[in-house]
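The aim of this short unit is practical: by the end, you should be able to scan a pair of folded records and say something sensible about each. We start with the first protein, listed as its amino acid sequence and then its structure tokens.
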Amino acid sequence: MTFNCNMRRVVMLVIINLTGRYLQIDVLTLNAVFPWFFLSRDTYWTVRGLLLSNMLETVQGILENFAEMVQRFGYVPGGGRVYQSKRSGPPLLIPTVLEYLEHSNDITLIRSLLPTLEREYDFWMTNRTVDIRGSDGSMHTLNRYHVLVGKSRPEAWRLDERTARSLQRGADPADFHSHVATAVESGWEFSSRWLADVGPQARRLASIRTRNIVPVDLNAMMCLNEVALSRIYQRAGDRRKAGYYNNAAARRRVAMDKVMWSERRGAWFDYDLQAEGRRDRFYMSNIWPLWAKCYGNGMGDANVEARVLSYLKQYTDVLNYTGGVPASLQESGQTWDYPYGAAPNHFVLIEALSVSQLTEAKNAALNLTRKWLETNYRDWVHTGNMWDTYNVITGRHPGHSEEEEEVKDGYGWTNGVALHLLDKYGNLLKAPDVSGARDNHTPTALLLIGCLVSVLLTML
């Protein structure tokens, strides 16, 4: 059986928060909504699902709500609770606005949002930048996460206090707490990306040093912000500002090529400020510039695509796991490491490969889509839920870990990415055999959210 799913009227559930407008989205599940949680990173993928469902009014409300938060705090805060307002999150509000504009042509709303979008961008360029010397000796400005909060997180107070007590003699607990808060701002809480490789506490949370790392994916996102602002201002008729942001994106591409690109390996890598060099380990974040086209002239390059594909196949072999691609190859026990994978990284890798000029890359995108959606579906058959992360070896969601309050089900980004992939590849996919599953919620659909029939959209 093949699945050619028309998802223009798929039902999505929303909740009301703060100013009475739509904020956090939970797609086709009643089990878990998080009224305190509205990272722009998460909402970017959820909004893509809403746009596929033609829920423009809902998206408009989300964008207006984010705009109000930027006006209030000067940036998109990491959540709706007071303590979360001290940090931001991965900056995807501006690319989300561009997605809405391209789907709706609502230039009136976008014009009203432009001052707010500039304020969000300026926050990152004023408070989250660092100058680095590139391979050619020239200086380049790139972004990093950087939160100066020197206390334990209220949402994980016990863990933070216990870890702080285990620090080496002479270590500053406030500095440790700042690195932890910075990791939370990154969205990768937690991962070996931020942990020391050597020393008595290597690869343990006590060795965290997030502020010292200049992340590849953050700078790819900032490149997306600059390209998005250029396109939005072009649509708004302001050629001067469109050119300004286009030039900013060009400077960033040069900076990432000089600082983060490894010609030997054929990929981009995080930069370690303390070690003054790249961290040459595989993380899914290494691939984000390929998706953002944040390299070269910004138009894509078959030679670079071939180098990255070779890196994925020969250096890492990450395309051969049965349930998707892990966030890293480091088995640290952390959520954003081996063997766990999350929907946003799969979206980025699949999209990057699918638009490649290389047939082999396009085939790899389809194959990874099949693996990821089958992982989503098989675990849904067992649990009745979609999850924020999955074990790409077993195909199941992780259990509870001490780093999180609870395992999150009904997760918006997983649902949004699944909708997107089904819309793109649904006619090429076949349902996996789940006849022997313990709890078979549906015998025919490849994925619960993509192929469910619309249920009275007008009732929303």
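Turning to the second protein, read its sequence before its tokens, just as you did above.
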Amino acid sequence: MTLELQSLLQSLELRVFSRCYLGKEVGKFQKKLKESLPGSEWNPIDTTKGLPPEQADVVIVGGGVMGWSVAYWLKCLETRKGALQVAVIEKDPTYSKASTVLSVGGIRQQFSLPENVQMSLYSAFFLRTINEHLGVVNEPPIDIQFNPLGYLFLASEDGAAILEENVHVQRDQGAKVSLLSPTQLKKKYPWLNTDGVAVASYGLENEGWFDPWALLHAFKRKAISMGVYSCHGEVTSFTTSSTELLTPERELTLSRINYVHVQMPNSLENQPVECSLVVNAAGCWSGKLAEMAGVGIGSPNTQDEIKLPVEPRKRYVYVWHCPDGPGLACPTVIDTTGTYFRREGIGGNYLGGLSPTEEEEPDIQDLKVDHSFFQEKIWPKLAHRVPVFESLKVRSAWAGYYDYNTFDQNAVLGSHPLVENMFFITGFSGHGLQHSPAAGRAMAELILEGKFKTICMEKFSFNRFITGEPALERNII
């Protein structure tokens, strides 16, 4: 062996040894740091965790249940495994203010629009078979803690005709809903005061409530296992390109989003993500996100000035104790006044609330609870309908945001006519959680196939804001 070859081998052995030694020392250093921070997942060496990729086919802005449902369905329906690169960007991974986890977790089929009834029926099927869809190998099975008790809608003489029309629509779509007279109502629920009630409807199946966090976590866990990027950061701007299109009426400006700019947490770093398509799943903040892309900031009296009419509306949920209350068979009751309540657990606790009037809408700057709203607006209505609630005691309360569609209180699903690669899945106005399995699938179908397949959602397109034709949902709680 020549001296030159021998020297080369020694050099290679030294490099291998150095790399092995360095790897071991870094491992020891990481272990020591983690031991010095008990209970913390922070890893100072792993600087890429949660960072968005430089490129993605689809960027989903908003990591609530809608965003992760879309991500899951995109990977589930892609034509070839790994064909799509999908990134979900969420600014608050703790979900401390997220509408999803602050929801009361109800699901019902009693809506007035056929599309909403169909979404409820599909979502109920999905939840019954959730482990077939969202189960992950070597992970515990999913338990969403479903409570199968129906919704009981009460109607006065003035609202009886509308309730009966709604039930006709629901039955036409395959929902099982019964109508009850005041006499039948009193026999079935003796604790209920039926004064002022002309008729009631009750969901016989596919209704109840479940754990919102469990569904969100299940969607997220499954999507990540399928290769979706989970990114922590806030979208602050878009880079767009535009082209002018001449029409007989006027000149239109069509634009595309080329880059999504993500502000990293606790940092001045701004990561641009090149993308083909953006899904706006930002919930109650989706209107602001749309404006960043140029939606609704055009010239007056043109399509360019039409905004996405979704804004945050704060809603209170109160929890009270009443040991002599309706008991375990208590359904979710929707009173003639709009006040609602249901059982919470098995210890004599109940929760409920009431949507305020336009004049009473609370400030949205924070999630503070107004306890006087319960005392003055809700409690008298509860005590009238359920006399034993006169002696209830409030134990806790919280507030959350609706992604409120001010135009018709219904979903916005589909692309924007001028910002051609921005897609919306927002505006559900309080019924988004329960419709997330169906709506996420519909959005994935539209992106991958160019059309809705399972349920036709054309009624919920952005174009209705241009034509001025609302898709009004009567049963908003």
